[in-house]
């Protein structure tokens, strides 16, 4: 019985130690989402404009993972219910894999461009 009480106590302490940094990071990222700068479609790289057009017309997407749910785990985009955002690959010339560039969309035309694999986003404006 004593061992069970000790185990619960340590679990409780561990949870308490984890909560403050998580709460701080979450509030910081929520602020960043509200301040995301914009980029016009005309100012996107050519490959991103191609992806944007594919999104607007419903496909055919060249990458198998295009259109998968984007979890927004970084909390950089505005908070929405799970499944709201979907991500699409923007081809990176010379890259052997999908590269770091993506367009993430909620309800089109609410779309965001990242060229650094989700660290920062810019809202795409038509």
Within the CATH hierarchy, at the fold level, what is the topology? Nuclear Transport Factor 2, Chain: A
Order of the strands making up the biggest sheet? 1-6-5-4-3-2
Q: Measured on Cα atoms, how large is the radius of gyration?
A: 19 Å
CATH architecture level-2 label: Roll
Q: Give the N-terminus to C-terminus distance in angstroms.
A: 65 Å
Order of helical and strand elements: HEHEEEEE
The structural domain count equals 1
Largest β sheet strand count, sense and barrel closure: 6 strands, mixed
**Proportion of residues in helical segments:** 25-40%
Strand content: 15-25%
Task: Give an account of the 3D structure.
The protein has a single domain (about 35-125), classed as Roll (Nuclear Transport Factor 2, Chain: A), CATH 3.10.450. Residues about 10-35 have low confidence and may be disordered. It is globular, with a radius of gyration of 19 Å. The chain has helices spanning about 1-35, 45-55, and strands at about 40, 70, 85-90, 100-105, 110-115, 120-125. The relative contact order is 0.17. Helix content is about 35%, strand content about 15%. The protein has 2 helices and 6 strands; from the N terminus they run αβαβββββ. By secondary structure, the chain is α+β, with helices and mostly antiparallel strands.
């Amino acid at each position: 019985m004593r061992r069970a009480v000790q185990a619960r106590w340590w679990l409780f302490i561990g949870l308490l130690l984890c909560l403050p940094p998580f709460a701080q990071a979450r509030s910081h990222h929520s602020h960043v989402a509200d301040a995301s700068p914009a980029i016009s479609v005309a100012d996107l790289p050519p490959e991103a404009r191609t992806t944007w057009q594919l999104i607007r017309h419903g496909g055919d997407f060249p990458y198998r993972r295009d259109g998968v749910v984007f979890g927004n785990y970084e909390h950089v985009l505005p908070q929405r219910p799970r499944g709201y955002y979907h991500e699409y690959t923007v081809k990176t010339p010379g890259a052997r894999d999908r590269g770091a560039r993506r367009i993430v969309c909620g309800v089109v035309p609410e779309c965001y461009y990242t060229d650094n694999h989700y660290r920062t986003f810019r809202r795409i404006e038509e």
